Amino acid sequence: MNKKSLRILEFDKVKERIKKYAQTSAAKDIIDGLEPYDSVFEVRQHLKETDEAFNLLTKKGNPPFEGLFDVREAINNVGKGATLFPGQLLKIAQLLRSARRFKSFIAHKEDEEGYPVLEDICAGIVPLKRIEEKIFNAIIGENEIADRASSKLFNIRKTLREKNSSVKDRVNAMVRSNSKYLQENLYTIRGDRYVLPVKAEHKSSVPGLVHDQSSSGATLFIEPMSLVNLNNEIKELKLKEKAEIERILAELSSDIYDNINAVRNNANIIWELDFIFAKAHYASDLDCILPIINEDGIIDIIDARHPLIDAKEVVPNSIYLGREFTSLVVTGPNTGGKTVTLKTIGIIEIMAMSGLLIPAKQNSIVSYFDEIFADIGDEQSIEQSLSTFSSHMTNIVNIIDKADDKSLVLFDELGAGTDPTEGAALAVSILENLRKRNCKIAATTHYSELKGYALKTIGVENASVEFDVETLRPTYKLLIGVPGKSNAFEISRRLGLPEYIISYAKQNISKDTMEFENLIQSLQDKNIKAEKDAREAEILKMDAEKLKNRYAQKLEKLENIREKAIIEAQKEAKRVIREAKHEADDILKNIRKLESMGYSSDVRQKLEKERKKLKDKLDIAEENLANKSKNKGQKLKSVEEGQEVLLSTIDQKVIVLSKPDKKGEVLVQAGIMKINVKLDDLRAIKESSSATSKVNYSKREAKLNMNMVSSSVDLRGMDSEEAIYTADKYLDDAYLGGLGEVTIIHGKGTGVLRKAITNMLKKHPHVKSYRIGSYGEGGTGVTVVELK
């Protein structure tokens, strides 16, 4: 990709904004070198990695980059055999920890969507937990080694503390005994040795070594002879401590040296991941999407936004070319947004080809181009004695030499800066030449001749930037298919120019020109209305499709819930009967024991009679339960594949998948399950049932659900996707159960989970209103939902 286009389209400014999200200077260096990739495969891969990182940010929050630093210099030094400082070792350990934690960060359950590109990148990470922990155990600060770094260091420091304590006691005693000779009743340290501040005139009264004197010379700092040996021992211990620390640092550096390839590889992967997540953070803040990539030169960007314009001010525009037409000629007033439109096309194409998500709406399409050429802005050069026209023409000559069918060409004010007649003729010739090469072109102009060229040439389309004559301001909306209309007369009238001057001016314009301008106005009005209607229809269609899909899913869930409820109820009934049998048997056993203790045989016969009566009742109840559904519908002697029948054992409609086998069994589908059942258990379906029974059933089911559904659901510990699924299912159950108000517990945390739940509640069909919990309800850790 030519550097000039990247500079003109301000890709460097986009990169500067992305760099703000990078954690390390290594990742920032990667961003500095970011350019469009050389193949469509690379573009798709890098777009996919950015999209995966974007999804991870949404579901799991920030990646494990805590305490990450750029340690390239330290890794290079240790690779040459150097011993690192404690702070450098600590930063390398933090890098190794980030790399190890990242493998866990991208892990996912088997039934969840994976992150194949990021997983491939992280596959190269080699966990070095032993080295990582060894460094963290040995180093506790930038310049502080832990006592437990080695047993030898621990013993040295223990002895050193004891010696210091001993010498302090000794020197304090000497301060008290020599107080009359001292400048102050205290001791001090000079060169790691304990000394006394002795008055100069009494130096002979305190025998010892003089280490220093005050600036006035009135005080001498003397080390008493009785302290010399103790101070020597302390000095020796400190030298041993220093030597042991150097040995520990050398050992830790050696561990890294022995694994230098793995450490360097982990570092490179972490820099790459830092770069990828910087792109994802930028995409998240700009509300970007993953575009569809093609190689056919088709551009169809829905509600494109220029990334460098403030989000509160930018006007989204849908821009397309490459299907019905390959050239787009944009006309309109100055400051109307023509140049911004060109730059938006160019920068969004460059962003996509550089692996960045684009600021547009879903289903936007961009194309892969070998080259993007841009002639935008005034590049007048005084040094080279080039006028504006000459500067533009020099650039255009270069474009014509190199552009082909794999090129996107952007012209701003093509042919401007010279005689209008000659400039318009040149502009038409340049556009036609490039169009025949099948280049994709977007050009802005003020020349009416180019409007006519676009109207009569196949493959070329007019477009304009809208102007509101009521407010005398541009709306910055792009209208494709309509050439720009000159509003000079209308603007002049609104600014107060006398009507007779405007009328005289109109007389000097040919009738054909006026009719052409009026035709443009009519086309513009009709096109605006048509686009508005089409947009509204498309939105309604999409909304209807979403509702259809949502309610299809809800219906499937409800059917599964009903199936499960019936099966569970039957299991429960069987369990109750079984337990009742056991209980009856236990009672009778106990009665027999009592009988053996003194009851007569007549009593025993009566008890046996009662036992038999109880057993018969239980057997009848069990048989009724098993055969409850068998009486419903007529027995089937034969079935056909695809036939809907009633499975009497579970009172459930099923679909026949096969004809009876030799055993008289049929394969049927019940909900999401496929099971083999006996042909005798299948019944013909009764098509109608009384409305009253349905109402009664619904009331019983609602009452049952109300008893079974909790008034709150706890989502803490879940990721965003799992939480949304759980909350959605819970709201369905709560709605069916007739609950009026429920509580969703999401915790406070980083706020990612609360935001995801809030976005879901905005569109949920069962939700009437929702609010953050008040004091005593859980505060910002819960959301209280009122159901319809």
For this entry, give a set of tags.
ribosomal large subunit binding; 22 helices; nucleotide-binding; rRNA binding; 6-stranded mixed sheet; 788 residues; rRNA-binding; MutS, DNA mismatch repair protein, Chain A, domain 3; Rossmann fold
Protein architecture, described:
- By secondary structure, the protein is α/β, with parallel strands linked by helices.
- It folds into five domains: 3-128 and 259-286, Orthogonal Bundle (MutS, DNA mismatch repair protein, Chain A, domain 3); 149-251, MutS, DNA mismatch repair protein, Chain A, domain 3 (Orthogonal Bundle); 292-508, Rossmann fold; 629-687, SH3 type barrels (Roll); 697-787, Ribosomal Protein S8, Chain: A, domain 1.
- The protein has 22 helices and 25 strands.
- The strands form seven sheets. It has a six-stranded mixed beta sheet, sandwiched between helices.
- Strand 3 and strand 4 form a beta hairpin.
- Helix 2 packs antiparallel against helix 3.
- The longest helix is centred in the last third of the chain and has 86 residues, at 511-596.
- It is flat and about 115 Å long.
- Mean pLDDT is 81; it is low at 380-385 and 688-707.
- This is Endonuclease MutS2.
- Residues 713-788 form the Smr domain.
- Residues 513-631 form a coiled coil.
- Homodimer. Binds to stalled ribosomes, contacting rRNA.
- Keywords: ATP-binding, Coiled coil, DNA-binding, Endonuclease, Hydrolase, Nuclease, Nucleotide-binding, RNA-binding, rRNA-binding.
